């Protein structure tokens, strides 16, 4: 997840960046509320027990990063500048984003409220990225092995990847996982679709996913059952079965992918804000 200290550190680095980004230098309660209101559909999401980072004093002094599973509790430092443990805390697990950010705003801490929003944006984006990887990997041996079919899938995927890239850039989220996925898909799209190319694609996709898996699933994804249904079907579909009944499966497979694309589109609408921030909508 995104840390407050990391977010503030990026403020310094952003001085040389010309792209439009959220201004963490001059956050006020009103600005934080505006960003939260623009993502109002996210506010009802329940935060699950996944990694995330907070720590107000730590970030203000740009000291070394500290993992702290609690909100609204400044991380105190001992004589060696190591973060001390927290015992008295406001829990975040199974609370809504609305409740958590309200706590932060009531404590006059707009930065922490924004970091919680950024954590959810990052987690949703990376979870969808992982979903795309999994569905593509399962479909390549059968459904997407033809160049034209993969190219169509690739074009839809790249539209989503590019959206996510701009969203992450605006909110100062690490874009490396998205950049890597775009590179992997682009490389495979230009390949001959031979068996070794498929295996290399799946290997690279898995390695990339393994690097950011801990930053996924901070919230339960809306319409997740659609994704699960698609993956279950692809797991059961054998190559010989598909080839023997190709005509029979073509229509159902297309409907299946439409279901997956609908799932992606629904969550993209939630990730988009209501005022075209960064030209994303």
How is this structure best described in words?
It is a single chain. With 281 residues, this protein is mostly helical. It is built from eleven helices and no strands. Helix 5 runs antiparallel to helix 6, helix 5 runs antiparallel to helix 8 (195-212) and helix 5 runs parallel beside helix 9. It is elongated and about 65 Å long. The two termini are 24 Å apart. Residues 2-18, 53-90 and 277-281 have low confidence and may be disordered.
List the helices and strands and how they pair.
Layout: H1 4-13, H2 29-38, H3 56-60, H4 97-106, H5 110-139, H6 147-170, H7 176-189, H8 195-212, H9 224-236, H10 239-244, H11 246-271
């Amino acid at each position: 997840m995104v840390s407050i200290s990391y977010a503030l550190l990026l403020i310094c680095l952003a001085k040389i960046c010309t792209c439009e980004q959220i201004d963490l230098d001059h956050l006020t309660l009103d600005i934080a509320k505006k960003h939260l209101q623009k993502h109002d559909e996210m506010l009802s999401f329940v935060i699950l027990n996944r990694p995330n980072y907070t720590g107000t004093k730590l970030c203000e002094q740009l000291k070394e990063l500290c993992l702290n599973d609690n909100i609204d509790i400044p991380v105190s430092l001992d004589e060696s500048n190591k973060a001390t443990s927290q015992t008295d805390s406001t829990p975040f697990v199974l609370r809504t984003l609305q409740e958590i950010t309200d706590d932060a705003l009531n404590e006059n801490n707009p930065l922490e409220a924004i970091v919680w929003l950024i954590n959810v944006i990052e987690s949703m984006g990376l979870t969808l990225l992982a979903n795309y990887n999994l569905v593509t990997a399962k479909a390549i041996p059968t459904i997407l092995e033809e160049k034209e079919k993969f190219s169509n899938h690739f074009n839809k995927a790249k539209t989503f990847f590019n959206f996510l890239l701009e969203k992450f850039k605006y909110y100062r989220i690490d874009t490396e996982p998205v950049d890597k996925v775009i590179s992997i898909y682009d490389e495979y799209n230009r390949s001959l679709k031979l068996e070794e190319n498929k295996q290399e694609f799946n290997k690279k996709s898995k390695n990339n996913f393994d690097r950011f898996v801990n930053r996924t699933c901070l919230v339960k994804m809306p319409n997740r059952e659609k994704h699960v249904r698609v993956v279950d079907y692809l797991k059961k579909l054998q190559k010989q079965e598909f080839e023997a009944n190709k005509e029979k499966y073509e229509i159902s497979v297309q409907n299946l992918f439409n279901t997956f694309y609908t799932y992606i589109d629904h969550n993209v609408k939630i990730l988009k804000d209501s005022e075209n921030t960064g030209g994303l909508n």
